[in-house]
Amino acid sequence: MPVPVSLNPEYLAPEVTVDEILAEQANVRLWHDKLHDGSGPGAEFRGWLEPDQIVSPDELDRLIATANELRETCDCLVVVGIGGSYLGARAAIEALASPSAPPVLYAGQNLSASYHARLLEALKGKEFALNVISKSGTTTEPAVAFRILREHLEARVGKEAAAKRIVATTDARKGALRALATQQGYRTFVVPDDVGGRFSVLSAVGLLPIAFAGIDVRAMVQGAAACAEACRCTDLMRNPAYLYAVARNRLYRKGFAVEILSSFEPRLHTLAEWWKQLYGESEGKQQMGLFPASADFTTDLHSLGQYIQQGRRILIETFLEIAGGEPEVRVPSDAQDGDGLNFLAGKTLAEINREAYRATALAHREGGVPNQTITLERLDAFSLGALFYFFEKACALSGYLLGVNPFDQPGVEAYKKHMFALLGKPGFEAQTRELRERLETGAASPEIRF
What distance in Å separates the CA atoms of residue 444 and residue 401, rounded to the nearest whole number? Predict the structure, then answer.
C-alpha cells in the first residue's frame, strides 16, 4: 500500500548535498541491520518496529469496544499521564478528532495547582472516565494527579461505579498501578515491556484515548504498518525516513545545533511536542544531539521569524506540509477593496497557506537556514499513523548514526532524585540532608529585588 509521506531535501544544499547523503549508504545498511537483528544498543526496546503486532487483533477489538462504551456513558475522558504516556494520543486527537467528538482532557503532565484546580472545576457536573497510564504507577506527576482525580470520582459516584470508569494502562504483571488495578477491579491494558514510552503511541497507551475520540485506530495502525514495510528498503533514494535521518546528522556534524519542526497547520502543534520528546530523549546524550524546537506558522513568523531569518546560523528546519484534503474556505470579494485584498478574492485559505509555506521555506533558505519538507498527502488516520512511524524509524537510525543508544534516557532521573530528596521520600534521607545544606548555603547569596 502506498505510503502518503514524502520528503523534499532541495533546500538542504549547499550545506548538505544529495551526494553527501548518499555517501552514508553503507553506514545506513549497517545500522539498519543492527536495528532489525537486535545487535545494536537498546535492542530490548524494539517492540515498536512492527506496529501491527504491538496490539493483537483480539486486544484491539477489546480496546475499541472499551473506548466505545466509555464514549457512550461518559461526557469526557481524562487521560492521566506524562511524556510518552499522553503526548502521542494528544497529538493524534488534536490533529484528527471531530469538533463534535467528546472531549479528552489531560492531567498529570505537570504539578501545577492552578491547572489541576481548573480541571476539577471543569469536571463539575460531568460524567467522566479516567485512563491512567503509567508502567510503574509511581511516576510522581501522574500518580499524584490520579490520586486526586480518583478521590474526586469516587466521592461523586461511589467506589464501585468509579471502578467501572477507570481504565489502567500499565505493566502486564508488576508495579503499584497493576496491584491497585487488580485490587479495585479496574479494566486494564498493557504497556509493552519492549516499547519505550516515547515510541508507544501505536500501543494501547495511545490507541485507547485516540479511539475514545472517535478516530479510526485500525486505519492508523495500517498506515504505520505500510510505512514499516516501506522502511525495510535501505536505499536512501527510496526511503525518505532514512534520508531525513542522514541529512540531520550531516548537518549536526557541520556545526548546526538546533532543528526546528515548523508547520502551517495549528492541528499539528502537539505532534511537534511529541516529536520534541522523541528526538530530545533519544539523542540528547553525552553532550551531543540537535536541540529539537518547534514553530507554529504563520503565527510564529511574527515572533520567531526575525530570529530564524537573521539570528545565529545554528538552525536547521524541517517543514511539515499537508498537500490536500483541507476544508474549502474562500476569501470573498469586496466592492470597496479598502484593505487591498481583492487580489486574493476567490482563493481558498489552503491555497494562501501553501504559498505562505513556500515563501517561508525559500526565504529561510536564502537567509542561511538549510531546510527540508515532509509532505502528507492529506491529514487522516492512515497518513498520521505513517507519519508517527516515519519519525520513530528515522529517530532510531539517527541515534545510531550519532553514536548513542536511542532507547534509553538516563538523564531524566537526575531531577527526580533531587525532587524525591527535597520532598522527603523514604530512602532518600542522606540526599535530603545534603541537598538542603547545599540549598541553604546558596540561599545566603543576595536576592535581587525591586
Answer: 46
How many angstroms separate the CA atoms of 61 and 71, rounded? Answer: 15
Domain boundaries, the chain: 5-40+229-402, 47-221
Confidence of residue 440 (pLDDT cuts 50, 70, 90): confident
Q: Edge-to-edge strands of the sheet including 5-8? A: 5-8, 371-378, 315-324, 258-263, 291-296
Calpha distance 280→274 (Å, rounded): 10
Q: Do domains 5-40+229-402 and 47-221 have the same CATH topology?
A: yes
Q: Are 334 and 370 in contact (CB under 8 A)?
A: no
User: b/e map of 181-192 (b: 16 or more CB within 10 Å)?
Assistant: beeeebbbbbbb
Summarised one tens digit per residue, pLDDT across range 60-83 is 999 999 999 999 999 999 999 999
CA distance 217 to 202: 9
Contact predicate 263/296, CB 8 Å: yes
Q: Residues with catalytic annotation?
A: 281, 302, 416
Domain 47-221 has CATH 3.40.50.10490: yes
* Three cell numbers, residue 57: 487483533
- For 67, the grid coordinates are 473506548
Which CATH class for the 5-40+229-402 domain? alpha beta
Q: Where are the beta strands (DSSP E) in 255-314?
A: 258-263, 291-296
Q: Which residue has the cell 494562501?
A: 352
pTM tops 0.85, yes or no: yes
Please check whether residue 234 is in contact with residue 393, taking contact to mean a CB–CB distance below 8 angstroms: no
DSSP string across 270-283: HHHHHHHHHHHHHH
**Mean pLDDT, the chain, as a whole number?**
95
